[in-house]
Every structure is written in C-alpha cells, then in structure tokens.
Amino acid sequence: MKQVLVVAAGVLLAGLIGWATVDFDSFRHTFAGYSDREIKQSWQEFDLTQAKIQQGLDRQLLEGKIKLAETRFGQGSLYSLCHEYEPTAKQNKAKCKQLDDRMARADAEYAKHPW
Q1: Interacting residues of 75 by C-beta distance below 8 A, sequence separation 6+
Q2: How many secondary structure helices (H) and strands (E) does the chain include?
Q3: CB atoms inside a 10 Å sphere around CB 79
Q4: What is the SS3 assignment for 57-68?
Q5: Domain check: are 50 and 9 in the same one?
Q6: What are phi and psi of 14, to 5 degrees?
Q7: Which tens digit of pLDDT belongs to each residue from 18-29?
Q8: Is residue 90 included in any domain, yes or no?
Q9: SS3 letters across 34-59
Q10: Which residues, at least 6 apart from 60, have a Cβ–Cβ distance to it below 8 Å?
Q11: Same domain? 29 vs 52
Q12: Are residues 52 and 107 in the same domain?
C-alpha cells in the first residue's frame, strides 16, 4: 500500500513538473495568481480594444446618418462636412444647425409611426 502511495505521489509530482516546464505561465497563474503588472497590462489592452471598437461604431453611425441625410434631403455631403470637420464660419455653423434641426424633426416624425 505504501508503494502505491509513493508511486502515485511520484506520478503527480512528475505531472506538475511537466506542466510547469511546458506552460509555466498557466502553472504560475493557477497557484500564485496574476501579478500587478499583468493585471495593469490586461486593463490597458482592454481599454485600447474598447476604444477601437467605439471608434468603429461611431464611424458606422456617422456613415449611416450621412446616408440618411442624403436620402432624406440630398445633403449627405453637407452633413458629412458638419460632423467630420467642425465648421468655423457663422454661416456654415448656421447651415449645420439648420440641417441638424431638420434631421431631428424628421427623426421625431418617423418615431411617431408604428412601423
């Protein structure tokens, strides 16, 4: 019986040594957890990925609104200019505000319909 326990302990120890040799990070994370540096790096990667995804979604939303402005009013290029590059002249700001107001009124009107 004692020999069986010694052999089982040896096999278990050999397995742990093999695991530590093949994939030390997994072995260390299982028994010691993650270091502060690894946690900080993971959060930085997460924040970077989240920012990239948000930029992509914002770009898709802007493209959709540009197409909608083109479809509704034939002024997709104006909408694009207003929202991709901030207008500086008062006249351009007024045109952008007027188009944004028209888009908001149209959105409100379309929201009333049950479809």
Answers
A1: 69, 99
A2: 5, 0
A3: 22
A4: HHHHHHHHHHHH
A5: no
A6: -65, -40
A7: 887 888 888 888
A8: yes
A9: CCHHHHHHHHHHHHHHHHHHHHHHHH
A10: none
A11: no
A12: yes
Distances (CA, A) of 94 to 15, 36, 74, 87, 89: 73, 52, 18, 9, 9
Task: Give me the residue label for tokens 């694009």.
Answer: 80
Note down the domain range covering 101: 46-115
Residues of the chain with pLDDT below 70 are: none
Cα 108 to Cα 42: distance, rounded to the nearest angstrom: 42
pLDDT in the model for residue 52? 97
Is 8 found in the same domain as 64? no
**The two three-digit tokens of residue 54, written as one number:** 């948000």
User: How far, in Å, are 45, 77, 82 from residue 66 at the CA level?
Assistant: 32, 7, 10
Q: What is the DSSP letter of 33?
A: -
Are 51 and 107 in a shared domain?
yes
Decide: helix, strand or coil at residue 28.
Answer: helix
Answer yes or no: are the C-beta atoms of 87 and 81 closer than 8 Å.
Answer: yes
